[in-house]
Design goal:
By secondary structure, the protein is of the alpha/beta class. The chain contains 10 helices and 8 strands. It folds into 2 domains: about 140 residues, Rossmann fold, CATH 3.40.50; about 120 residues, 3-Layer(aba) Sandwich (Rossmann fold), CATH 3.40.50. Strand 7, helix 9 and strand 8 form a beta-alpha-beta unit. Helix 2 crosses helix 5, helix 6 runs parallel beside helix 10 and helix 8 packs across helix 9. The N and C termini lie far apart (about 90 Å). The structure holds zinc ion.
Amino acid sequence: MNKIITKIFTAVLLVLPVLLLMSCGENNGIKKSGKIVAVSSITIINDIVKNIGKDKVEAISICEVGIDPHTYKSKPSDPRTISSANIVFINGFTLEHWIEEMVHNAGGSRPVITVTKGLTPMTDEKGFGDPDPHAWFDVKNVKTYADNITEGLVSIDKANEAFYRKNLEEYKAKLDELDKWILTTVEQVPKEKRILITSHDAFRYFGRAYGFDVKGLQGISTEAKVQTEDVKNLIDLVKQRQLKSVFIETSVNPKLLEEISRETGAKVGGVLFSDSVGNDGTEEGTYIGAVRHNVNAVVNALK
Ligand SMILES: [Zn+2]
């Protein structure tokens, strides 16, 4: 009898560490598939996560393609998505007012990484000096995004550190190439014609980095109500500077910009990706592809 009890006791002792390890594994969140579930607030961050995490990460974006993050209303599946996450990536600079509550409500614990950490925001001149969230339109800033994403992934998956760091270096090389390409491509537009009229002020970092004046009908957030005065001012500006093109955005209602186009005779020079990349599987479905599309559209319309 004693022998049987000893055997059972020994068996439990042997199994216990394994059980503990398994539960630790689950707390660290590495799923049975072996993939880290990384949830990002917007598709732009999600694409950078895919480039660093590749096949080790299942990358999911809360805001889907073409969705405006400033005014985002959560959908029924969001709490489940966040609960499944091992790590959450957000932009910060007040882009996602809604995410804190969402993460809190999901319960559990997981790192929430702000990918703009280490960057200094531009501030909104029209509003109350709020940070401008659209830092991703200076390609150099996205290297910081990629660094922060890599540190986040390494913090929960040390075993694959070398893999993530190698992907980071490759991705940063592509970003450097993109940055150089933009600087030479915009040279085709004469300095006095470098003015970008858009639905909302998403392109101020782009303007600062690549030498464009930027005027958005709405400020840095689409939450602001457009005043008749703002529309009138923009119409005056387009007429005064004899601008040939204005631009609409994939994640913002184009109505007012089309009205300005009709009033002034300035063409709609193209559709720009501002707060979302394009459809999955297309070239514009990546951050780099979306930026290349924007630059080509702007240069072709203004040169
Ligand atoms: Zn925006």
